[in-house]
Here is the input.
Amino acid sequence: MTEWDVKKLRILRTLRDRGTVTATAEALLMTPSAVSQQLTNLAKQLGVELLEPQGRRVRLTDAAHLVLRHAEAVFAQLERADAELTGYLRGEAGEVRVGAFSTAVPALVVPAVRLLRAEDRPGPDVRVREAEAAQAYELLTAGEVDLALSLAAHAPTARDPRFSLFPLLADPLDVALPVGHPLADAPALRLADLAADRWIFGGSGPWSEITTAACEAAGFVPEQAHSAAGWTAILALVEAGMGIALVPRMASREQRPAAVVMRVLEADQPRRHVVAAVRHGAESGPAVARVLSALSRVAGAFS
Here is the structure.
């Protein structure tokens, strides 16, 4: 029978995800030579070539991809076993490390923790790590968090065997206007009405993509006046009359200067979609399942 070494299989999967031996070594806190040696040993154990040269790098062979397809099922089963064992040893009050982007922490994570604390039975010990939405799947893969909140725009396909995804919330995007803007009180405001305005959004990344996609769907390309990523900075620029911005309702509920008017775009209905993700199989763990349930209840109330 072929010998399957889980540790070496994880190294092979990391190489697939990271692309180079050097990046794999950095992610796993190993030396490049140790990574190469482990993969050479795995190839000998399995009796197939796993890597082939590609210029100054290496790439996975078809046999390596075949091995990883089956290995993903093994990883998921190990996650389920670990979740069940944790539930057996700790009950439902185990530790759950949650990675969440900035606006999700006060809007979703904190209320979910309050719900868990209000229950009669002991709840999980939730440890929060603020991280960019784009980091969610790297943190999950590295085992640095157990559950991550991200945006659907960053999510892998539903067929990715590494993760289980749970849609939580369609967060409406409202437009922030300075008090005194000619359309601040206009009835039935639409995005197209603001095509000639100067806009504020990040120079790159998800918020740039979300803003430009919403405006393009309304029939225009927004003129970027200023580049900012944090909501405090964006709303301060709007308040100063330096431009307008799309702002997710999750963010505007937490902070909004008095001199900023938030208008709902009922006809356009732009949204960003928030999802929760865990490593495939981990959702069966009692503690993770309780946190997911609490997040779903908070998201439902938010809607």
Q: What stands out?
A: The mean pLDDT is 89. Residues 16 and 60 are 7 Å apart (CA to CA).
